[in-house]
Amino acid sequence: MRFEEVKTGAILVVKVLDNRIAADVSPRFKAQLKDYIEAGNRAMVLDLSAVTFIDSSGLGAMITALKSMGKEGNLVISGAQGAVASMFKLTRMDKVFRMFDTAGLAEAALQSAASARGSA
Fold first, then answer.
1. Where are the domains of the chain?
2. Model confidence at 68: pLDDT above 90
3. Would the pTM of this model clear 0.70, i.e. be above it?
């Protein structure tokens, strides 16, 4: 799997460059998400704008990543469209993950959440 990473402050934006997240690549996908988390990233945007297909194993990898972040972590999804957005809705994962149209909107929401936590 190919990824593009951009870190702004404490927020890591990870863009999936492959167009499919399915059973054949989900172990590598899951391992990479785990590596990001183990490296200390607790605020992540997963940009799926280039992904045109995702199956349950891909969603499972994201759930595992979300759980491993714990309550202090934040993993949000951006750019899901077409069949990918439909899969999130069909499986009700759009209720588990915060979904944003763009990575920029997702990043802004995470920055806002971090600021609110810092001032509380």
1. 3-109
2. yes
3. yes
Gap between the Cα atoms of 104 and 97, Å rounded:
16
pLDDT higher than 80, residue 53:
yes
Q: Which CATH number fits domain 3-109: 1.20.1250.20, 3.40.50.2300, 3.30.930.10, 3.30.750.24?
A: 3.30.750.24
> What angle in degrees, to the nearest 10, is found between the helix axes of 56-69 and 26-38?
10
Would you state the pLDDT for residue 118? 60
SS3 track for 4-45 = EEEEECCEEEEEECCCEECCCCHHHHHHHHHHHHHCCCCEEE
